[in-house]
Amino acid sequence: MDEVTILKAIVREMQKGVLVLNQQGTILYANPFFMKNYSPRTELRGQNIEELKDRVPLLGAIADVLKRSSEVSTENLEISDRDRFFKIRTVGLRDTGESNLIVFIEDITEEKRVEAIKKDFVANVSHELRTPLASIKGYAETLLDGGLEDREKLKEFLRIIDKHATRMSRLIEDLLILSRLESQDVPMEQEPIDIYKLIASITEGFKKHAQDKGITLSIHKNGTVPEVLGDRVRLEQVIVNLLDNAIKYTPQGGKVDVIVRYENDEVRVDVKDTGIGIPPEDMPRIFERFYRVDKARSRELGGTGLGLAIVKHIVLGLKGRVWVESTPSKGSTFSFTLKPAR
Protein backbone atom coordinates (compact mmCIF):
# COMPACT_ATOMS: atom_id res chain seq x y z
CA MET A 1 0.00 0.00 0.00
CA ASP A 2 1.48 3.37 -1.01
CA GLU A 3 1.88 6.35 1.31
CA VAL A 4 -0.78 8.49 -0.42
CA THR A 5 -3.45 5.82 0.07
CA ILE A 6 -2.55 5.53 3.76
CA LEU A 7 -2.70 9.31 4.27
CA LYS A 8 -6.07 9.53 2.51
CA ALA A 9 -7.48 6.83 4.79
CA ILE A 10 -6.14 8.60 7.90
CA VAL A 11 -7.67 11.96 6.93
CA ARG A 12 -10.94 10.30 5.96
CA GLU A 13 -11.27 8.57 9.33
CA MET A 14 -9.99 11.42 11.53
CA GLN A 15 -12.36 12.58 14.27
CA LYS A 16 -11.32 16.18 13.62
CA GLY A 17 -12.33 18.54 10.86
CA VAL A 18 -9.82 19.02 8.04
CA LEU A 19 -9.99 21.74 5.35
CA VAL A 20 -7.56 22.48 2.56
CA LEU A 21 -7.63 26.04 1.16
CA ASN A 22 -5.69 27.70 -1.63
CA GLN A 23 -4.18 31.18 -1.43
CA GLN A 24 -7.44 32.80 -2.59
CA GLY A 25 -9.46 31.06 0.14
CA THR A 26 -11.11 28.51 -2.14
CA ILE A 27 -11.87 25.21 -0.41
CA LEU A 28 -10.04 22.38 -2.16
CA TYR A 29 -11.00 19.63 0.30
CA ALA A 30 -13.13 19.00 3.39
CA ASN A 31 -12.91 15.63 5.14
CA PRO A 32 -16.05 13.56 5.95
CA PHE A 33 -15.95 14.50 9.66
CA PHE A 34 -16.15 18.22 8.86
CA MET A 35 -18.94 17.70 6.33
CA LYS A 36 -21.00 15.56 8.70
CA ASN A 37 -20.67 17.76 11.80
CA TYR A 38 -20.36 21.31 10.52
CA SER A 39 -21.72 21.44 6.98
CA PRO A 40 -24.12 18.53 6.41
CA ARG A 41 -26.20 20.20 3.67
CA THR A 42 -23.71 22.49 1.91
CA GLU A 43 -21.23 21.47 -0.79
CA LEU A 44 -17.91 23.14 0.03
CA ARG A 45 -15.38 22.05 -2.55
CA GLY A 46 -14.61 24.74 -5.10
CA GLN A 47 -16.33 27.52 -3.13
CA ASN A 48 -14.64 30.50 -1.50
CA ILE A 49 -14.70 30.46 2.30
CA GLU A 50 -15.82 34.12 2.42
CA GLU A 51 -18.94 33.34 0.38
CA LEU A 52 -20.02 30.60 2.80
CA LYS A 53 -20.02 32.71 5.97
CA ASP A 54 -23.80 32.99 6.26
CA ARG A 55 -24.53 29.35 5.47
CA VAL A 56 -21.76 27.76 7.58
CA PRO A 57 -21.05 30.05 10.59
CA LEU A 58 -17.95 28.07 11.60
CA LEU A 59 -16.33 28.86 8.24
CA GLY A 60 -16.98 32.54 8.88
CA ALA A 61 -15.16 32.31 12.20
CA ILE A 62 -12.24 30.48 10.54
CA ALA A 63 -12.09 33.06 7.73
CA ASP A 64 -11.98 35.92 10.24
CA VAL A 65 -9.09 34.31 12.12
CA LEU A 66 -7.13 33.64 8.92
CA LYS A 67 -7.72 37.20 7.76
CA ARG A 68 -6.34 38.61 11.02
CA SER A 69 -3.24 36.40 10.88
CA SER A 70 -0.38 38.24 9.21
CA GLU A 71 1.39 35.01 8.30
CA VAL A 72 0.63 31.32 8.24
CA SER A 73 1.13 29.90 11.73
CA THR A 74 1.32 26.33 12.95
CA GLU A 75 0.30 27.39 16.45
CA ASN A 76 -3.06 26.44 17.96
CA LEU A 77 -5.68 29.17 17.86
CA GLU A 78 -9.03 29.19 19.64
CA ILE A 79 -12.22 30.42 18.00
CA SER A 80 -15.86 30.46 19.03
CA ASP A 81 -19.02 29.90 17.02
CA ARG A 82 -22.02 30.99 19.10
CA ASP A 83 -21.99 28.64 22.12
CA ARG A 84 -19.31 26.28 20.79
CA PHE A 85 -15.53 26.53 21.02
CA PHE A 86 -12.93 25.21 18.59
CA LYS A 87 -9.19 24.85 18.42
CA ILE A 88 -7.71 25.29 14.95
CA ARG A 89 -4.22 24.55 13.72
CA THR A 90 -2.99 25.82 10.35
CA VAL A 91 -0.20 24.25 8.35
CA GLY A 92 1.18 25.76 5.12
CA LEU A 93 2.03 23.58 2.11
CA ARG A 94 4.50 25.79 0.25
CA ASP A 95 6.68 22.87 -0.82
CA THR A 96 3.99 21.82 -3.32
CA GLY A 97 4.63 24.87 -5.47
CA GLU A 98 1.37 26.50 -4.38
CA SER A 99 0.56 28.36 -1.15
CA ASN A 100 -2.12 25.94 -0.01
CA LEU A 101 -3.17 25.75 3.62
CA ILE A 102 -4.41 22.83 5.73
CA VAL A 103 -6.71 23.76 8.62
CA PHE A 104 -7.33 21.23 11.41
CA ILE A 105 -10.46 21.92 13.48
CA GLU A 106 -11.15 20.33 16.89
CA ASP A 107 -14.30 20.91 18.94
CA ILE A 108 -13.20 21.80 22.51
CA THR A 109 -16.61 22.87 23.83
CA GLU A 110 -16.72 20.03 26.35
CA GLU A 111 -13.17 20.77 27.52
CA LYS A 112 -14.11 24.42 28.05
CA ARG A 113 -17.23 23.41 29.98
CA VAL A 114 -15.27 21.06 32.26
CA GLU A 115 -12.57 23.71 32.76
CA ALA A 116 -15.22 26.27 33.77
CA ILE A 117 -16.82 23.76 36.16
CA LYS A 118 -13.44 23.08 37.79
CA LYS A 119 -12.73 26.78 38.22
CA ASP A 120 -16.17 27.40 39.68
CA PHE A 121 -15.79 24.38 41.94
CA VAL A 122 -12.45 25.53 43.38
CA ALA A 123 -13.77 29.07 43.84
CA ASN A 124 -16.96 27.82 45.53
CA VAL A 125 -15.17 25.41 47.88
CA SER A 126 -12.68 28.12 48.84
CA HIS A 127 -15.49 30.56 49.51
CA GLU A 128 -17.56 28.05 51.51
CA LEU A 129 -14.59 27.12 53.72
CA ARG A 130 -13.25 30.66 54.17
CA THR A 131 -16.20 31.96 56.20
CA PRO A 132 -16.33 29.24 58.90
CA LEU A 133 -12.53 29.13 59.09
CA ALA A 134 -12.35 32.89 59.61
CA SER A 135 -14.98 32.67 62.38
CA ILE A 136 -13.24 29.77 64.12
CA LYS A 137 -9.88 31.57 63.96
CA GLY A 138 -11.36 34.88 65.14
CA TYR A 139 -13.15 33.44 68.16
CA ALA A 140 -10.19 31.21 69.06
CA GLU A 141 -7.86 34.25 69.01
CA THR A 142 -10.30 36.20 71.20
CA LEU A 143 -10.30 33.38 73.75
CA LEU A 144 -6.50 33.15 73.71
CA ASP A 145 -6.23 36.92 74.21
CA GLY A 146 -8.01 36.79 77.56
CA GLY A 147 -11.55 35.73 76.80
CA LEU A 148 -11.16 32.56 78.88
CA GLU A 149 -11.90 34.48 82.08
CA ASP A 150 -15.53 35.24 81.18
CA ARG A 151 -17.42 31.95 81.57
CA GLU A 152 -20.50 33.16 79.68
CA LYS A 153 -18.49 34.44 76.74
CA LEU A 154 -16.37 31.31 76.80
CA LYS A 155 -19.47 29.13 76.47
CA GLU A 156 -20.94 31.31 73.70
CA PHE A 157 -17.70 31.42 71.70
CA LEU A 158 -17.19 27.66 71.97
CA ARG A 159 -20.77 27.13 70.78
CA ILE A 160 -20.09 29.33 67.71
CA ILE A 161 -16.80 27.52 67.02
CA ASP A 162 -18.59 24.18 67.26
CA LYS A 163 -21.33 25.40 64.89
CA HIS A 164 -18.83 26.46 62.22
CA ALA A 165 -16.74 23.30 62.65
CA THR A 166 -19.91 21.23 62.15
CA ARG A 167 -20.72 23.19 58.99
CA MET A 168 -17.23 22.52 57.62
CA SER A 169 -17.54 18.85 58.51
CA ARG A 170 -20.88 18.60 56.67
CA LEU A 171 -19.46 20.35 53.63
CA ILE A 172 -16.45 18.01 53.44
CA GLU A 173 -18.68 14.97 53.93
CA ASP A 174 -21.02 16.10 51.13
CA LEU A 175 -18.03 16.82 48.86
CA LEU A 176 -16.70 13.30 49.42
CA ILE A 177 -20.13 11.76 48.73
CA LEU A 178 -20.56 13.80 45.54
CA SER A 179 -17.02 13.01 44.37
CA ARG A 180 -17.59 9.28 44.83
CA LEU A 181 -20.94 9.43 43.04
CA GLU A 182 -19.51 11.35 40.09
CA SER A 183 -16.50 9.06 39.73
CA GLN A 184 -18.73 5.99 40.23
CA ASP A 185 -16.31 4.69 42.86
CA VAL A 186 -19.17 3.07 44.76
CA PRO A 187 -21.47 0.98 42.57
CA MET A 188 -25.18 1.30 43.31
CA GLU A 189 -26.74 -1.68 45.06
CA GLN A 190 -29.70 -3.23 43.26
CA GLU A 191 -32.14 -4.68 45.77
CA PRO A 192 -35.95 -4.66 46.06
CA ILE A 193 -37.05 -1.87 48.44
CA ASP A 194 -40.46 -0.93 49.80
CA ILE A 195 -40.06 2.76 49.04
CA TYR A 196 -43.20 3.82 50.91
CA LYS A 197 -42.07 2.06 54.10
CA LEU A 198 -38.58 3.59 53.76
CA ILE A 199 -39.98 7.11 53.31
CA ALA A 200 -42.45 6.64 56.18
CA SER A 201 -39.66 5.71 58.60
CA ILE A 202 -37.53 8.71 57.52
CA THR A 203 -40.53 11.06 57.70
CA GLU A 204 -41.16 9.93 61.27
CA GLY A 205 -37.68 11.15 62.19
CA PHE A 206 -38.43 14.61 60.77
CA LYS A 207 -41.78 15.12 62.51
CA LYS A 208 -40.33 16.64 65.68
CA HIS A 209 -38.25 19.09 63.61
CA ALA A 210 -41.33 20.02 61.56
CA GLN A 211 -43.51 20.47 64.67
CA ASP A 212 -40.91 22.75 66.25
CA LYS A 213 -41.24 25.00 63.17
CA GLY A 214 -45.03 24.79 63.18
CA ILE A 215 -45.08 22.81 59.91
CA THR A 216 -47.49 19.97 59.13
CA LEU A 217 -45.59 16.98 57.70
CA SER A 218 -47.52 14.08 56.15
CA ILE A 219 -47.02 11.14 53.78
CA HIS A 220 -49.59 9.66 51.37
CA LYS A 221 -49.72 6.57 49.18
CA ASN A 222 -51.93 6.63 46.10
CA GLY A 223 -53.03 3.08 45.36
CA THR A 224 -50.76 0.04 45.31
CA VAL A 225 -47.07 0.83 44.98
CA PRO A 226 -44.64 -1.94 44.01
CA GLU A 227 -41.15 -2.28 45.39
CA VAL A 228 -38.38 -0.41 43.57
CA LEU A 229 -34.96 -1.66 42.57
CA GLY A 230 -32.38 0.50 44.26
CA ASP A 231 -29.74 1.23 46.86
CA ARG A 232 -31.26 1.66 50.33
CA VAL A 233 -28.47 3.86 51.72
CA ARG A 234 -28.45 6.15 48.67
CA LEU A 235 -32.24 6.43 48.59
CA GLU A 236 -32.19 7.44 52.25
CA GLN A 237 -29.81 10.26 51.29
CA VAL A 238 -32.21 11.40 48.55
CA ILE A 239 -35.24 11.47 50.84
CA VAL A 240 -33.37 13.08 53.75
CA ASN A 241 -32.04 15.86 51.50
CA LEU A 242 -35.45 16.58 49.95
CA LEU A 243 -37.29 16.56 53.28
CA ASP A 244 -34.61 18.66 54.97
CA ASN A 245 -34.83 21.28 52.19
CA ALA A 246 -38.64 21.30 52.19
CA ILE A 247 -38.84 21.93 55.95
CA LYS A 248 -35.90 24.37 55.89
CA TYR A 249 -37.49 26.66 53.29
CA THR A 250 -41.12 26.44 54.45
CA PRO A 251 -42.24 29.15 56.89
CA GLN A 252 -44.18 28.55 60.10
CA GLY A 253 -47.74 27.34 59.50
CA GLY A 254 -46.83 25.71 56.18
CA LYS A 255 -47.19 22.13 54.96
CA VAL A 256 -44.87 19.47 53.56
CA ASP A 257 -46.53 16.49 51.86
CA VAL A 258 -44.78 13.39 50.52
CA ILE A 259 -46.81 11.52 47.90
CA VAL A 260 -45.87 8.06 46.63
CA ARG A 261 -47.64 6.57 43.60
CA TYR A 262 -47.24 4.12 40.75
CA GLU A 263 -47.91 5.43 37.25
CA ASN A 264 -46.68 4.84 33.70
CA ASP A 265 -44.66 1.81 34.86
CA GLU A 266 -42.66 3.98 37.29
CA VAL A 267 -42.76 4.59 41.02
CA ARG A 268 -43.01 8.34 41.54
CA VAL A 269 -42.23 10.30 44.72
CA ASP A 270 -43.25 13.94 45.16
CA VAL A 271 -42.02 16.10 48.04
CA LYS A 272 -44.37 19.07 48.01
CA ASP A 273 -44.03 22.15 50.23
CA THR A 274 -45.72 25.52 50.67
CA GLY A 275 -42.40 27.33 51.08
CA ILE A 276 -40.67 30.29 49.48
CA GLY A 277 -40.53 28.72 46.00
CA ILE A 278 -37.94 29.13 43.26
CA PRO A 279 -37.82 31.97 40.71
CA PRO A 280 -38.13 30.78 37.06
CA GLU A 281 -34.62 32.02 36.18
CA ASP A 282 -33.10 29.78 38.87
CA MET A 283 -34.96 26.59 37.92
CA PRO A 284 -32.49 25.31 35.25
CA ARG A 285 -29.57 25.51 37.69
CA ILE A 286 -31.19 24.30 40.89
CA PHE A 287 -29.46 20.87 40.78
CA GLU A 288 -25.99 22.35 40.21
CA ARG A 289 -23.28 22.08 42.86
CA PHE A 290 -23.23 25.08 45.22
CA TYR A 291 -26.08 26.80 43.40
CA ARG A 292 -28.37 28.56 45.84
CA VAL A 293 -31.40 30.74 45.20
CA ASP A 294 -30.82 32.75 48.39
CA LYS A 295 -27.15 32.30 49.30
CA ALA A 296 -27.22 34.24 52.57
CA ARG A 297 -30.32 32.47 53.88
CA SER A 298 -29.08 29.05 52.81
CA ARG A 299 -25.81 29.46 54.71
CA GLU A 300 -27.67 30.80 57.72
CA LEU A 301 -29.82 27.65 57.73
CA GLY A 302 -26.76 25.41 57.49
CA GLY A 303 -27.01 24.32 53.85
CA THR A 304 -23.88 23.19 52.00
CA GLY A 305 -25.28 23.82 48.51
CA LEU A 306 -24.55 20.20 47.52
CA GLY A 307 -27.71 18.38 48.64
CA LEU A 308 -29.65 18.65 45.37
CA ALA A 309 -26.58 17.77 43.29
CA ILE A 310 -26.26 14.59 45.38
CA VAL A 311 -29.98 13.87 44.86
CA LYS A 312 -29.62 14.22 41.09
CA HIS A 313 -26.56 11.95 40.85
CA ILE A 314 -28.14 9.21 42.97
CA VAL A 315 -31.46 9.19 41.09
CA LEU A 316 -29.74 9.22 37.68
CA GLY A 317 -27.38 6.49 38.90
CA LEU A 318 -30.46 4.36 39.68
CA LYS A 319 -31.75 4.99 36.11
CA GLY A 320 -34.50 7.28 37.37
CA ARG A 321 -35.58 10.84 36.60
CA VAL A 322 -35.59 13.93 38.84
CA TRP A 323 -37.12 17.39 38.34
CA VAL A 324 -38.73 20.32 40.14
CA GLU A 325 -41.84 22.44 39.67
CA SER A 326 -42.19 25.67 41.62
CA THR A 327 -44.06 28.93 42.00
CA PRO A 328 -42.34 31.76 43.92
CA SER A 329 -43.95 32.43 47.33
CA LYS A 330 -46.28 29.43 46.90
CA GLY A 331 -44.01 26.43 47.15
CA SER A 332 -42.07 23.76 45.29
CA THR A 333 -42.54 20.11 44.36
CA PHE A 334 -39.40 18.02 43.94
CA SER A 335 -40.15 14.75 42.14
CA PHE A 336 -38.22 11.65 41.22
CA THR A 337 -39.08 8.31 39.64
CA LEU A 338 -37.62 4.83 39.94
CA LYS A 339 -38.20 1.60 38.07
CA PRO A 340 -40.22 -1.10 39.85
CA ALA A 341 -38.32 -4.17 41.05
CA ARG A 342 -40.34 -6.62 38.98
Which short descriptors sum up this protein?
single chain; 342 residues; alpha+beta; Beta-Lactamase; Helix Hairpins; Heat Shock Protein 90; five-stranded antiparallel beta sheet; five-stranded mixed beta sheet
Q: How would you describe what is shown here?
A:
This protein has 342 residues and is of the alpha+beta class. It has three domains: 105 residues, PAS domain (Beta-Lactamase, 2-Layer Sandwich), CATH 3.30.450; 78 residues, Signal transduction histidine kinase, dimerisation/phosphotransfer (DHp) domain (Helix Hairpins); 155 residues, Histidine kinase-like ATPase, C-terminal domain (Heat Shock Protein 90, 2-Layer Sandwich). The protein contains nine helices and twelve strands. The strands form three sheets. The chain has a five-stranded antiparallel β-sheet with strand order 2-1-5-4-3. The protein starts with a helix and ends with a strand. The model has no long low-confidence stretch (mean pLDDT 82).
